[in-house]
From TrEMBL:
Identification of the protein by name: Flagellar hook-basal body complex protein FliE
InterPro entries per the UniProt record, alphabetical: FliE (IPR001624)
GO molecular function, one term: cytoskeletal motor activity
Example of a GO cellular component annotation carried by this entry: bacterial-type flagellum basal body
One Pfam family of this chain: FliE
Sequence segments annotated as region (Disordered): 14-35
Length: 111
C-alpha cells in the first residue's frame, strides 16, 4: 500500500482551512492522486483477512489430522500452526479495535 504523506497532509490542511479552523499557510499546490487509495486499503485489508482465514484453515486441518492419527503431521506442526493462527487473529482484532477507535475520534471532532 502506497500512501503519499505530503499530499494527505496538504489535503487535511486544505479541509481545515475551509472549515475556518486554521489559517491557510503558503503551500505548494495539492497533487491530485488517483482515487485508488481507498481501493488499495481495501485490497490490503482483504488480503490480510484472507491470510488469517487461510492460517486458521491450515491449523484446523493439521489439528484434525493429528486427532485422526495421521502420521504425516506431527503434534509440533499442529501446535505451531494453531499458535500462528491465534497470533494472526489477535493482531487482526487489535487492528480492528484501532480502526474503530480512530473512527470514533474522527466522528467526535467538532466541525
Amino acid at each position: 500500500m502506497k500512501i503519499q504523506n505530503t499530499s494527505l497532509y496538504q489535503e487535511m490542511q486544505s479541509m481545515a482551512a475551509q472549515a475556518g479552523r486554521v489559517q491557510p499557510q503558503a503551500k505548494p499546490p495539492i497533487q491530485e492522486s488517483a482515487a485508488t487509495s481507498t481501493a488499495q486499503f481495501g485490497d490490503v485489508l482483504q488480503n490480510a483477512l484472507n491470510t488469517v482465514a487461510g492460517l486458521q484453515r491450515d491449523a484446523k486441518e493439521k489439528v484434525t489430522a493429528v486427532e485422526m492419527g495421521d502420521r504425516s503431521v506431527s503434534l509440533a506442526e499442529a501446535m505451531i500452526a494453531k499458535n500462528k493462527s491465534s497470533v494472526a487473529f489477535e493482531a487482526t482484532v487489535q487492528v480492528r479495535n484501532k480502526l474503530v477507535e480512530a473512527y470514533k475520534d474522527i466522528m467526535s471532532m467538532p466541525v
